[in-house]
Amino acid sequence: MRLKPGNAFRPGLWPTLAMLVLCALFLRLGVWQWDRAEYKRGLLAQYQAQRQRAPVSLDALLGDPTLESFPSYLRVRAAGNYDPGRQLLLEDITHEGQAGFEVLTPLLMQGGVIALVDRGWVPMDAKGGAPDLSVDGKPRLITAGIGLLPMPGIRLGQAPAPAAGWPKTLLYPTLDDLRPLYGPKLMTPVLHLEPGEPDGYTREETLDVGLPPSRHLGYAFQWTVLAIAVFGVWLVVNLRRGRKQGEDT
Asked: Strand, helix or coil at 239?
């Protein structure tokens, strides 16, 4: 029997709707991964641009009434003295697969301003605690980069209240969580101590953005291929079904 044109291609309603939904979902995920790659490329480019600049005085920035916010990753020189009695340990931080803590030490600056200095990562000891974090409280001048607190991939609920005593161990706190501990003069950005500065621990030489842009681009390609594959399967199945129906007539 000859294949009738009218019977050649008549896809079912529900399979077609399923195909459209899956293709739209996979393509949207591909675009999202592409956007993540571009976003992280921008962060890395901004970070590298700031790394090429000489550090500026943080006191001068704080005294500038026209400054509305600090540029991301700006290198600064900050004068003050550490407060070793009120340090923080951020838990659930890993480095090369090893569990440990990020150490935040308050730097007392002029005018009562307090800046939290991320001194780096320390490994967890055999008892699940941190090693000796002692640091002197003498006046010092540090070089650091403007940054943010570590953030979880997904924040589930509110962090529990810290226990009494110092140092306090916290799980991904926000600055709003920390202001009751240090008062209203706590500076919004965190200072990430540069490698080579004294009294620091393990620190990254480059900006940690999690998955690199190339990985996001790879995922974007995979999602796009899946969308094409779903459409291809739908098309082939319905062409064969239409051809069989045409031959039967």
From this structure: helix
What the block records as the tokens of 110 is 């002029």
- Residue 33 in tokens: 């991964």
pLDDT in tens, 53-94: 999 999 888 887 666 678 888 999 999 999 999 999 999 888
CA distance 223 to 26: 5
SS3 call for 47: helix
Q: Any idea which residue has 């706590």 for tokens?
A: 186
Q: Are 174 and 124 contacting, i.e. CB atoms less than 8 angstroms apart? A: no
| pTM score of the predicted model | 0.76
Buried b (16+ CB within 10 A) or exposed e, 127-153: eeebeebebeeeebebbbbbbebbeee
As to burial, measured by CB atoms within 10 angstroms (0-12 exposed, 13-18 middle, 19+ buried), residue 3 is middle
**Which amino acid is located at 129 in the chain?**
G
